[in-house]
Every structure is written in structure tokens, then in C-alpha cells.
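Researcher: If convenient, please comment on what follows.
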Amino acid sequence: MNVPTQKPDGAGRTVFVTGASAGFGQAIARRLLGEGCRVIGSARRYERLTDFHQGLPPGLRGNFLPLQLDMTDIEALRALPGSLPADWQQIDVLINNAGLALGVSPAQDCNPNDWDRMIATNVTGLVELTRALLPGMKARNRGYLMAIGSTAGIYPYQGGNVYGATKAFVAQFMANLRTDLLGSRLRVTTLEPGLCGGTEFSDVRLGDPDKARQVYAGTQPLTATDIAETVSWLLSLPEHVNVNRIEMMPTCQAPGGLAVARDV
């Protein structure tokens, strides 16, 4: 496994990464472990976490704690960090990465159960976990809170409806969190990627591997490694520097402009 060995200023921190069983979360966990961080990786699919854990170089395995956690289980979220082993309870960095999109149908044709699941994971789960870990960070007067948003929360597109709305919520929640924490040494950043390939995102959203591949046909999209690199850079910045938001797109993508329906 190719794990970086350089150690930026984030080395030694305890980092909590949600959705660490695949995609962005696993890439972030791998990168930060290689840079000397201790990482709690959570996900619903515990077997994926344990496979990742066992695949790490022996010298890094003790720095990774796999944690089975469903972001829709509010009671489990509220029980953190007290349910963690004692030497893992002081979280320095929270990376709220877990989330999903379901479907691309127009609003009038969507499955309301898909809407409920996206809101429960992308919004309620993120808020509950943040609220559970925030008091400890505030009491220690140190910490970094990151969330993975999306350009879908900025630029509307057909079929984006509730998914885009959940990511707009993430951006505004994090911006308000930054304001609430003014006067402390805590930092807050939202990362908002555009087209990203090489993850399960489109497979889950579309439920069809062939359709998922078509999303990226003829493009060079962002990758999970690009997102992990950005997280690493943020953690390496001096403590007096706060980056509020980062909007990222591959060079093959740009906002599409306003649409006009003619002869309506």
C-alpha cells in the first residue's frame, strides 16, 4: 500500500473520519495515517473497515481505530465520544465526510424515502455528530471541523433537488458554526467538490454500474486522492489560518450558466 511518509503540522492529532469504508473517507484516512495522525474511521460496513485496517503496514495499524457507526442512528451519535476507548476520546479533527445521493429524477417523480434517507445522513447525522464532539473541542480550545459539501449545494441542476439542498445546508451550517466559534482557536472548513470519479458515489446514486460509468465518460474528474491531498494541506496550515470554504472542480467542468425554456 502506498502511504505517504511526510509529517506536516497535523501529525500526532487524533482525527475522526466518517464514511471511511470507501471513497473520500478511506483516502483521507490513508493519507493522514501516513502523515502520523491517529485516525478513527467510522462506517456502517464494519467489514470494509477491518479489511482496510488489516491492509495497513504493521507500524500504522495501532494508529487506526475502526468504528461501526450508522449516521442515521441518533442515539449512537449522541453517545460519542464517551463510547470510545479512553485514549481515543480527545478528538482534534472531525471530518464529516459520510453522505450520499439517491436518484436523479425530477422532484415530482422522486421517491420520498430517498429524500428522507439523504436528509437523515447528510444533514441530521452531520449535525448530531458535530454537536456530540464539539463541547470537548471547545473546552480544550483546539480543534478543526471539516465537512464535505458539494458544488451541488451552490449550482442547481436537474435531478439535484434534495441532494443539492442537503449540501447547501452543510455549507450554511458550517459557516454559522465558524461564527459561533469566533474567539476560540477552533477552525472550520467546508470542501465542495464537483465532478469526482473513482468512488461509489454514482453507483449508489444511480444503482447501475453502466450508468455510473457514463457519468465520467470522456472526462478527467477529481479523485478521492485529490480530496485527501486538500485535507492534508488544510491540516498543515498554521493555526491562525482559517480557510472557510474550498470549491473544487476538475478543469473539464465549469458552471453551466442559466437555462431558458422556450415556447412554454
